[in-house]
Amino acid sequence: MTSHQSRRSFGGKPLKTKSHSRSSSSTTSLAVETPSDTSPSPSPSLDLPPRMNGSHEVSEVAETMAHTDINGKRKTQRSKYDRKQSTPMMPTFMVSAPGKVIVFGEHSVVHGKAAIAASISLRSYLLVTALSKSKRTISLRFPDINLSHTWNIDDLPWSTFSATGKKKYYYDLVTALDPELVAAMKPHLEDVSPNESDEIRKVHRNTASCFLYLLLSLGSPAFPGSLYTLRSTIPIGSGLGSSASISVCVAGALLLQIRTLAGPHPDQPAEESRVQIERINRWAFVGEMCIHGNPSGVDNTVSSQGKGVIFQRTDYSKPPKVKPLWHFPELPLLVVDTKQARSTSAEVAKVGALKKQHPLITESILHAMDKVSEGATELIGNDDFDPEDPSSIEELGKLMTINHGLLVALGVSHPRLERIRELVDHEGIGWTKLTGAGGGGCAITLLKPDVSPEKMKRLENTLDEEGYGKFETTLGCDGIGVLWPAVLKNGMEDDMGGEEIDQDKFLNADGIEGVEELVGVHGDNGDREAWKFWRVED
Ligand SMILES: Nc1ncnc2c1ncn2[C@@H]1O[C@H](COP(=O)(O)OP(=O)(O)O)[C@@H](O)[C@H]1O
Ligand SMILES: C[C@@](O)(CCOP(=O)(O)O)CC(=O)O
Fold first, then answer.
1. pLDDT digit string (tens) for 365-397?
2. pLDDT at position 34, please?
3. Nearest bound ligand to CA 437?
4. If you measure from the C-alpha of residue 410 to the centroid of ligand 2, how many angstroms do you get, rounded to a whole number?
5. Same domain, 229 and 190
6. Are residues 305 and 348 in the same domain?
7. What is the DSSP code string of 101-144?
8. Is the pLDDT of residue 287 over 70?
């Protein structure tokens, strides 16, 4: 594969991509394999920030952080003269993680075939603000779902989570929720959004349980009072991995707060970066279990590591095998939301019924889908594949068209999905397929290079008129990123060290565009350098 440093035309807007050296895919597996990561954590190497907003005497929060061992036990040892040292407080920081699309092989994956999923540039952003020593509370402000909740740290069931046989460490592989721990957590979820409808409360409690289970597993009674503010640019419940993305943000933020992650920093070897991502991914999977019950682990893996993955599930009682595609190309992708509600289980059942009725025909379709995924893996793994070259894009696009046709044959498309395909085909601007379960949800279009702004505008107008949601994204983006400290500028311009992104600014950012403009990983003039990523590619 060629390396590229590019700005592709995207409906008249330049698309930002980064330069990465590329080589063939690694076969390292994340999330679903036996733990090998039991080494003690290296100390974190994020640069400590310049003091912001004037000088802080060290607070007990910072002191506690500095004296908390890897198992969360507080070390009470003080300095020689038993007085507080002047060290900076943990800064306000931010983490961000992407959503995902299934690029090839939805449905056939349910029947043991290989599928490919990849990250997209729609992302969740979580701002973490350490509170002053006197505030012994943990607060969530998640305005996308109108969730606002505060727990008193000292009231939380720490002893149950740290009891012998129950305590889990940051390096553990947790593959199931512990029913006793879930029961201990339950009373602390009961007063979440008490005045909302049952339906809304369920959503709020799922999100709150994801956070609380991770906090109680990774934290300790000495955990610093903190405020977590989350905003996401990923539509919720459209099959684009919004829940995995927030689980990755929460897992990453908590692991950073207990100082069990090394980096990210630019010189970090890929191997070390992958270990950090693996840690985050394992805990994000636990968060996903709180929201979903029985997730496959694919969404959180793609969201943590970014790029793409091939996944296959030959034994349905086990999680799928996940092989990272560290060098998945960055490609311009249009995601269109039909806004048509769909049920993944109903669509999966449809295919199951078809297979019963027409076993040979259905098996041939599924086999053909497997060949499409195989062909796509070969294509993008080939050294000749060049995301800048129209013929490479066309080959990949054709595979998407075939995959969509096969999904139609399985009966999982929907007139609103077909309408998107028709509109895109009419303009001749790219290759479209449904993504995820179908029956509604989203379609993805791989755009031809240099699509004319007029054609793009015409398509946008029609989609708008017909009530579709549209997102201009990039496929194959970075996974979890860290903005440390969370400042608007890099802090180089003046002595004050940059302007802090406080909660108000973040909450007041206007819509998706406002969030992207204020804190976005992908700024108007290319990717923001202040965001750091664990570089997983060799
Ligand atoms: N921005 C967000 N803020 C708070 N919770 C969120 C957010 N995005 C997703 N969630 C949680 O994830 C759930 C959506 O998961 P799911 O239905 O699987 O959709 P998706 O396919 O987008 O992951 C929501 O009901 C909510 O609990
Ligand atoms: C249809 C299926 O292959 C993908 C479902 O994707 P989503 O939940 O719609 O993102 C089901 C599955 O893999 O569990």
1. 999 999 999 999 999 999 999 999 999 999 999
2. 28
3. 2
4. 14
5. yes
6. no
7. EEEE-TTGGGGT-EEEEEEEEEEEEEEEEEPPTT--EEEEEEGG
8. yes
